[in-house]
Amino acid sequence: MEIKKVTVAGGGVLGAQIAYAAAFHGFDVTIWGRSEGSIERAKPRINKVYETYTKELELAPRYIGAEFPNYPRSFFDDVKDINLEKIEELKKNNEKAYKDLKYTVDLEEAFADCDLVIEAIAEKVDEKRAFYEKIKDILKDDAILASNSSTFMPSMLKDFTGNKERFLHLHFANNIHRQNLAEVMGHDTTSKEVIDTVAQFARDIGMYPAIIKKENPGYILNSILVPLLDAALALYGDDIAEPKDIDMDWKIGSGSPKGPFEMIDIIGITTVINVTSTREDAKDPSSPMGKALKKLKEREAKGLKGIETGEGFYKYK
Amino acid sequence: MEIKKVTVAGGGVLGAQIAYAAAFHGFDVTIWGRSEGSIERAKPRINKVYETYTKELELAPRYIGAEFPNYPRSFFDDVKDINLEKIEELKKNNEKAYKDLKYTVDLEEAFADCDLVIEAIAEKVDEKRAFYEKIKDILKDDAILASNSSTFMPSMLKDFTGNKERFLHLHFANNIHRQNLAEVMGHDTTSKEVIDTVAQFARDIGMYPAIIKKENPGYILNSILVPLLDAALALYGDDIAEPKDIDMDWKIGSGSPKGPFEMIDIIGITTVINVTSTREDAKDPSSPMGKALKKLKEREAKGLKGIETGEGFYKYK
């Protein structure tokens, strides 16, 4: 089946980015909000994405023929594709996307004839379930439903969708025009055609679709990131090395742009404490993770929570 | 104390890189080999490093004022330091280093008046111990001894050095003029002055010294890399996703230049099998790691061992 009309439910930070990326790449996109208030909050977010795209396209000529171009990967497949003509074409897409994007609070208008719903509402399982129950009788029979949920699994939601074979997760990172990753994860009875169609849609909006073949909490990215951070936290807990040296060692040794403690500053120490607290070995105060948890809590109590508070393991102006 | 004369024991790939980096940065450097044959094998390695430096310096003007310059970090502290005058100065250093580097098989000549020994001989504990016993009565009382060992701990060698307070590890990555990491790890009675002196020496040869405050197998880098690879292998063992998707997901999501399976191809599947086989959970064939180990062994049996065999998870021309 072909996707033409897309409705994004929820106009939060990520909902706005997803809706805009789809519109920019030529899809007919509607943002549905549950109230006029939520639509009014979505519009400035869309304005911000539009401004980001405008600025990126103004800067794009500098990447033409550059040796290490740091260009938006969702705009160009390859550095060889960057030329003035292509940039002008994308500028037109950008203006058209901004002009054509639709907003509605009306369920019929939003969902009656869309081919793909991307659900990006609040990360509360009851709200998501209620949403799917509310729209299931409005949708076309062959509509595809994709949730951007970060923490739930498709099997926790599928029974509320009315058409579970056509339900899956499509999970985006932040800042998706550059960090162009879309994790595609079905449950055990999602149809193969639906997975293929959604993977192709992701490609069509400039994303790399990483196919997750079985339900897996944390998708792929967090399944790797969490053990990496845990390993760094164990070194910190055991006082093997200072966070700055751990970060520099990892960055130089692996070529990664961020060290584990820079990542913790981005994630926020409170979230890291919450995740670490669930580990069995963190409950023993003499273990490396137990000692790390204690140190993290001491830093949190001092307000050193990361970028959001202006200081974490590093200072942010 | 001040380091002026440096002897590198062993002229293997890394010994040659370390000796050359020290000579390039103005130290008086001798390479000691156990036989004329080992010296003859060291010389072409030094030639190769000299050629690499020469080529890097030819390319260096392109980094002047560049936005994302991918310059050798051990040559310049910051992109702002890259200018034609500095490049000319480094070219002179390069010629001088190549010309002045000394080679000897004579123990007195190599070790009697050196301030710092960097031991980079074969990774065999008995050979290392015998080496330290052989030189301990030749060295000056205040000479510092640093081992580049990847797998042993300083406490396994210290009692053979004759002066354990002045013994520590200084562990380099490969391709050190770009991957400019030096892990500094003492044992429990290495003197603070020795650690500070060696860290400063590392800085002086363009390295970032990551200080490891307590003995830790795997230093910092491998303590983080191994759990990262294990997490990726568990996803692969459980057939959650294909290696290519795991790699792309991690690269886009984290910004890292290499995915876990690209790294496994670099490390070589046999080494990864050896390391994974020591894990308790890999002994259970129904566990994710057990299943991953089985798959790795099947690939190894087919000769898909990584870059060294031309094909691993990816093909290499």
Q: State the major sheet of chain A.
A: 8 strands, mixed
The quaternary organization reads as homodimer
Q: What is the H/E order of chain A?
A: EHEHHEHEHEEEHEHHHHH
Report the C-alpha radius of gyration of chain A, rounded.
21 Å
Shape of chain A: globular
Please identify the structural class of chain A as seen in this structure.
alpha/beta
Helix content of chain A: 40-55%
N-to-C CA distance of chain A: 50 Å
| Tally of contiguous helical segments of chain A | 11
Mean pLDDT score of chain A, rounded?
A: 96
Annotation, overall tally of beta strands of chain A: 8
Please explain how this structure is put together.
The structure is a homodimer of 317-residue chains. Chain A has 317 residues and is an alpha/beta fold. Chain A has 2 domains: 5-212, no CATH class; 225-309. In chain A, 45% of the residues lie in helices and 12% in strands. Chain A is built from 11 helices and 8 strands. The first copy, chain A, has helices spanning 13-24, 36-59, 84-100, 107-111, 125-135, 192-204, 221-237, 243-254, 260-267, 269-277, 288-301; strands spanning 5-9, 28-32, 102-104, 116-119, 144-147, 167-172, 181-186, 208-212. In chain A, strands 3-2-1-4-5-6-7-8 form an 8-stranded mixed β-sheet. In chain A, helix 1 (13-24) packs across helix 2 (36-59), helix 2 runs antiparallel to helix 3 and helix 7 (221-237) packs across helix 9 (260-267). Chain A is globular. The mean pLDDT of chain A is 96. The interface between A and B is large, with 50 and 50 residues.
